[in-house]
Write a structure and sequence with these properties.
150 residues; mainly beta; OB fold (Dihydrolipoamide Acetyltransferase, E2P); 2 helices
Length: 150
């Protein structure tokens, strides 16, 4: 845990489903997480969602802030942020490193963009975004885990 709001030097790799199931367990930690990043108006409105079905999630989405005072120790991260911010509305499969406060993720580094698609108003999601992730009435998943899982 962080002391007095200071970011930790240790980074925990966490699956989105673990984070969404028990967000309080990661409060105050610097984490690396992979997810579906949705943004509008550049990167002013942005959320992170599951890259696969998470039937036990408590969080459907995590608010994301990239613009604050991120640390860009590598040109690659800066280049990836610029790539995201060039689109006004979009969706991307990303890996972020950031500080999690229990509800919001403050991105310090964009580590990877696996997919990036523009997303005009009312357009369907690209095929790589998981669909129909509700749990079936017999307790089985209505959609198998996405092949995007690591």
């Amino acid at each position: 845990m962080l002391a007095e709001g200071q970011p930790s030097d240790l980074t925990r790799e966490v699956a989105y489903c673990q984070l969404a199931k028990d967000p309080s367990a990661y409060r105050g930690m610097r984490i690396r997480v992979r997810g579906v990043y949705r943004f509008a108006s550049g990167i002013e409105f942005s959320i992170l969602q599951a890259p696969e079905c998470c039937p036990e999630s408590r969080l459907k989405e995590i608010p994301v802030t990239i613009d604050g005072t991120p640390e860009y120790p590598a040109r690659k991260s800066d280049r990836l942020v610029k790539k995201l911010s060039r689109k006004s509305n979009g969706i991307a499969l990303v890996e972020f490193l950031g500080d999690f406060d229990g509800t919001d993720l403050y991105v310090q580094k964009v580590e990877q963009i696996e997919h990036l698609s523009p997303l005009p108003d009312r357009a369907p999601d690209p095929s790589w975004v998981p669909r129909n992730c509700n749990v079936a009435s017999q307790g089985e998943r209505s959609n198998p885990p996405s092949p995007l899982c690591r």
